[in-house]
Amino acid sequence: MKLRKKTITALSFTLGACVFVSTAFADTLLGSGYDQLKASAKYTAAQMEQGLGNYTIEALYELKDNDQTLIQSSLSKKIDSQKQASENTTVTQNFNGETATSYFYADPKLVISNRGTQDKYYVTEFTDDADRGDINKFTNPFNEKGAPEIEKIVDAVVGNLKDYVQPEERADGGRVYTGSLSEAQVPAVVNAVSSFGIKQMMNERGHMQQQSKLPDIESDVFVKKVVGTAVENKSGILESVTSDVVLSGKDKNGVQHDLTLNVVFKLSNIGTTKITLPDLTGANVEKVTETGGFSSKHVGTYKNNIVMEKDGKFIKIGERTLELNSVDKDKITGKYFETVKPEFAAEYGDQYNFTFEHKPQQSGPNFFTYTNAKGEQENGQLHPSDSGKIYLDLNIKVADDNSYHSHQRPYFDGEFSRVFQE
Asked: Where does the UniProt annotation place the signal sequence (predicted)?
């Protein structure tokens, strides 16, 4: 079970902006200590994957538009590598002040979740000897496919800005890296990269913009300010990282927007973190099968609208249809197709139409294979959302056994609602 996908999509944008901006720009704060900090980050990630045993991660992400909060999300995650267990709580607040709290516990034999939208805990028990511990591990991002190439690009973009601020030694033997860049200190190449990157993210997440009230910035995009601090302990582990990045730009009406991204990360309770099985006595509990939470009640037809923005208005140009034909203990079968009005077909592009057979696995990500409009094999993923809803991911690219990412097409919306016969 997972967070609501609308929340995940909005948070993914925030995290995506964080990765894009922090990786390309926050490192520029760190002066001649750039290489030292990078080495510390790599060492910390390696220890989190293998070495620390157990620890707690706390993170806060907040995105503002002209001082108005668009989305804020906090995460507290406990990991015990030895027991192969994890527990995390996520609290997300959107632009209108609505708050959702999600809980998730997992060990090799049990998964417990509460999505935050219902007063119910979903419990999945695994009765065989399958080892599911890998899903609870931290994965070192520096070992991901393509990471060395990305690092080289970041190094090139940062350039001689590495020399802006020197790291300071702490009295206890660690280091503190602090610094800031003003608008005048940001070189043209950084602004050019940021302008392109932000525009691409805006274009690819049109639906999310509707949900989060994210402004549609079109011109004069530049990095206005970057401030950051990183604290390293005497063992070479990064205990905390904070950064504020301000991106400025104008929307299609010429209105100026300052998008402020605040990120806080803390690593604590190393060796003393304890994960306990939650007590569900008296709670509303629903046991789900190993088919990813699906059961026979999910058999049926689900739809959503294909929406395009044109001439300053949102218009419906077609529909997506998802059919679940059967849900057995070890297999889910279904069909997916899109219908687009003829006058928008050329602009929309390829329309997907395929059948699929999904055999959920007890360990690792659960994907099914389908054939796209070009006859190519791609991966997809299904899971239940709120009552009467299903979320579908398509265009998933699998890097290896532990990592994957999704490249959604323009106008795509993955949340489908059940079609009921009146």
From this structure: 1-26
Q: Tokens for 125? A: 């028990």
Q: What are the structure tokens assigned to 420, written together?
A: 């009921």
CA distance 261 to 256: 16
The amino acid sitting at 88 is N
| Helix, strand or coil, per DSSP, at residue 216 | coil
Q: How many CB atoms lie within 10 A of CB 9?
A: 20
CA angle 270, 276, 278 (to 5 degrees): 140
Q: Which of 213, 330, 241 is nearest to 23 (CA)?
A: 241
91: its two tokens:
């609290």
Strand pairing partners for 80? 54, 85
Mean pLDDT by 10 residues, the chain (422 residues): 39 41 42 71 86 89 84 88 87 78 85 74 69 61 74 62 66 81 64 57 47 68 81 89 84 84 90 90 77 79 91 90 87 92 90 87 68 86 80 76 61 88 70
Name the region of 388 (left: φ>0; alpha: ψ -120 to 50; beta: rest): left
Q: Which domains does the chain show, CATH number per domain?
A: 5-268 (no CATH), 292-418 (2.40.128)
Q: Is 407 helix (H, G, I), strand (E, B) or coil?
A: coil
